[in-house]
Amino acid sequence: MTSEEDAESALPDAQAGEESELPVIQLCGLVEELSYGNSALKTETEMFEKYYTKLEPRDQHPPRLSDIKLSAAEFAQLRGRRRSRTRTGIDRVVGLSVDQKLELVQKELEDTKDEISHMRANAERDLQHHEAIIEEAEIRGAEVQKAIHDFEKDILKTISKKKGSILATQKVMKYLDDMNRRRDNMKDKLRLKNVSLKVQRKKMLLQLKQKEEVGEALHNVDFQQLKIENAQFLETVEARNQELIRLKMASGNTLQMLNTYKSKLHRAMEIYVNLDKEILLRSELLDKIQKETLQVEEDRAKAEAANKKLRRQLAEFRAPRVMVYVREKILNGDLEKSIKMWERKVEIAEMSLKGYRKSWNKMKTTNE
């Protein structure tokens, strides 16, 4: 026994030595892995406890693992027992099989779905109730606003200038009497409608009761006849469904063709817009060319007129005789010489005039 205890005590010491020799990264990985496993086991345990509490009566519920509070000594004792179990290698934990766990999970999922559907139904019912209340309040508010508007339109605007008069009081009383009369009429109408609805309800209940009695009195032959009619109706419905499918297919093909033609029309419209722009540009260019053509035609007409005039002058030109030309040439030379001589004389006269003016100015200055 002592040797076994020594061996058992040496084993955790060796394990502790090995764990102490592990690096920090591996220890962190082990801690993270154990934390993940503990969280999964905690979730699984909570689910099993929930399922177990549903099976057991309320007064026989065992305490939950999370509610158990242990002291430090008890926790150390449990830990020592757990270590002794690990040392001896005996696994006494009785677990559930995978099929049992799957069954529990499926039941829990179904219960959760039922709870969600129940909550959704309650929420929808509450929502419909609140919507009905809001709708009723809106209708009532609209009626009140309409009554206020009618009162302001019929009474206030007419009696604003006659405050304190008997006529204003009579109008107010008449308006109130009319309102009460309309409410009484509405009440009578609603009462009659309620009575008619009750009578209609009684008739429908009576018809339903008669149908139930007739249904109880039906024989096997009637049921066979109903089955035959039901089969015929089912065949008719099937034929109608086939026709509906065919019409849907035809509608799909038509819609596809329509989309194709729409795309073609879109492309044609784009081409039309581009051609319209090009036609506009070509029209502007044509107008410009026409204006330039008119200008060129005018220039050509002017050039032709000048050409005709020059041709006519050229046709009418007659060369003078030689002697006359020589005399005219000599006379022209003499005239040019005389012009040059007179120009020289004028220059000399101007120079002498300038000299005389200078001397005159000097004389004037000396005399002064």
UniProtKB/TrEMBL annotation:
<protein>
    <recommendedName>
        <fullName>Cilia- and flagella-associated protein 263</fullName>
    </recommendedName>
</protein>
<feature type="domain" description="CCDC113/CCDC96 coiled-coil">
    <location>
        <begin position="181"/>
        <end position="354"/>
    </location>
</feature>
<keyword id="KW-0175">Coiled coil</keyword>
<dbReference type="GO" id="GO:0060271">
    <property type="term" value="P:cilium assembly"/>
</dbReference>
<keyword id="KW-0970">Cilium biogenesis/degradation</keyword>
<comment type="similarity">
    <text>Belongs to the CFAP263 family.</text>
</comment>
<dbReference type="GO" id="GO:0036064">
    <property type="term" value="C:ciliary basal body"/>
</dbReference>
<dbReference type="InterPro" id="IPR025254">
    <property type="entry name" value="CCDC113/CCDC96_CC"/>
</dbReference>
<feature type="coiled-coil region">
    <location>
        <begin position="286"/>
        <end position="316"/>
    </location>
</feature>
<dbReference type="InterPro" id="IPR051885">
    <property type="entry name" value="CC_CF"/>
</dbReference>
<keyword id="KW-0966">Cell projection</keyword>
<dbReference type="GO" id="GO:0005930">
    <property type="term" value="C:axoneme"/>
</dbReference>
<dbReference type="Pfam" id="PF13870">
    <property type="entry name" value="CCDC113_CCDC96_CC"/>
</dbReference>
<feature type="coiled-coil region">
    <location>
        <begin position="102"/>
        <end position="154"/>
    </location>
</feature>
